[in-house]
Amino acid sequence: MNVNNFFNIDNSLLELDKKALAECQAVFKEIEGTTEYNQLKVLKAFIDNGVSESYFTHSTGYGYDDRGREILEKVMADCMGAEDSLMRHNFVSGTHTLTVALFGVLRPKDKVLVLTGRPYDTITGVFGIDEKTDGSLRDFGVEYAQVELKPDGTPDIEEIKKALQSNSYKMAYIQRSRGYSTRPTLTIDDIEVLCKTVKEISPDTVIMVDNCYGEFVERKEPCEVGADLIAGSLIKNPGGGIASTGGYIAGKKDLIEKCSYRLTCAGVGKEVGATLGHSRELYLGLFSAPHVVGEALKTAVYASALFGALGYNVSPKVTDKRGDIIQCVTLNTPENLVAFCQGMQSGAPVDAFVVPEPWDMPGYTDPVIMAAGAFTAGASIELSADGPLRPPYAAWMQGGLNFHSAHAGVLLAAQKMMSQIKGE
Ligand SMILES: *Cc1c(COP(=O)(O)O)cnc(C)c1O
């Protein structure tokens, strides 16, 4: 085992590692097939759009006639199976990107229906779900409704139909990834069923998908199965670990135009925006993204196999169909969760010497512990894990720029937990 030339891993754990790797092989093959497909899709989009070295230059000021920016947005649209896109370094986060898309499309008195239960934490304040927060959609008079998930965590198609029949909704909103919930992630097939359900009853309703963590996990993207608009973060999948910040929105041309008026100004839209030298890394990141997503998926599958073999509850399981790069491992005790994160941190390329401790974070009821030794602050396409210190003491982990290094990171998380249990 190569890993033992550089790190101290117990023999018993190395045995489990070998078994876990063997268990993963068939799934890894499948992942490699999807990676190759998506890599070729991206390559073709670069070639078809005539990407040139001259597009990597710097624009300043208004950024008029920035060919690099314009073509990047065409390439991204092709990669997402969409008509057009906005892909910018100056989206500050995934939440900001989703916010621009929501405010771009929705108007006062419009109604929005969320089909997938309570959305991701940071989005709840954007809708103004719990209170009319200043600047939220609710503050601007947009009405909110949500259909709860069924007890098994899947969308409730019957209730969605009833809601759509009894009211007229401007937008139906779908969250693809599980976020920090225990519900299953939606696959592209699941999204297709939701889109068909909406369009059958209410063909004019705009279907928007929060595509965070989902890009390049499957061979199709939501716009190819009926979604009108998608958005995501560039420090997750589509930035390929190279984009240092940013986000994208992709979808129908008229909707992208509306979003562009919110991003810049009415009447000006996407014709402006200095790229300040970021274009090269956005192109390179998008080009690398299918491969990096494949590595992150392998890391998630391997962690599922290893911690499953160690007797912990894992979700998804090794052979479950995946719709995102997230792996949840239920560790049962606070000591395990802390050791897991500390062990993973010790295998990071950056800040490996830092020992993470649980901390009270704004907006969270329990202390949270995080492992993140990344080149890009907060990047979750790089190997990272976190979890709140409350039962069942689950760690949500994701990312891994390359499997060889992320494999070591996951093994070190397990090693630290085992040492801690043995009282070493
Ligand atoms: C990451 C994520 C977001 C956006 O989060 P940011 O931290 O603002 O980038 C939104 N929805 C889901 C499901 C996510 O996983």
Protein model, in words:
With 424 residues, the protein is an alpha/beta fold. It has two domains: 2-40 and 287-422, Aspartate Aminotransferase, domain 1; 60-276, 3-Layer(aba) Sandwich (Aspartate Aminotransferase, domain 2), CATH 3.40.640. 40% of the residues lie in helices and 13% in strands. It is built from ten helices and twelve strands. The strands form two sheets. A seven-stranded mixed sheet has the order 1-7-6-5-4-2-3, with helices on both faces. Helix 1 packs across helix 2 and helix 8 packs parallel to helix 10. The structure holds pyridoxal-5'-phosphate. Pyridoxal-5'-phosphate binds at residues 93-95, 120, 122, 175, 177, 179, 210, 212-213, 233.
Primary descriptors:
40% helix; Aspartate Aminotransferase, domain 1; 2 domains; 7-stranded mixed beta sheet; alpha/beta; binds pyridoxal-5'-phosphate; Aspartate Aminotransferase, domain 2; 424 residues; single chain; 12 strands
Please indicate the count of domains.
2
CATH superfamily of the largest domain: Type I PLP-dependent aspartate aminotransferase-like (Major domain)
Class based on secondary structure composition and strand pairing:
alpha/beta
The run of helices and strands is HHEHEHEHEHEEEHHEEHEEEH
The number of strands is 12
Widest β-sheet, arrangement of strands? 1-7-6-5-4-2-3
Give the overall average pLDDT. 96
Distance between the termini: 23 Å
Ligands bound, unique: pyridoxal-5'-phosphate
Strand content: 5-15%
From the 3D structure, determine the CATH topology of the largest domain: Aspartate Aminotransferase, domain 2
Low-confidence stretches: none
Computed CA radius of gyration, to the nearest angstrom: 22 Å
Largest β sheet strand count, sense and barrel closure: 7 strands, mixed
Q: Which CATH-level-2 architecture of the largest domain?
A: 3-Layer(aba) Sandwich
Shape: globular
CATH top level of the largest domain is Alpha Beta
Number of helices: 10
Helix fraction, binned, reads 25-40%
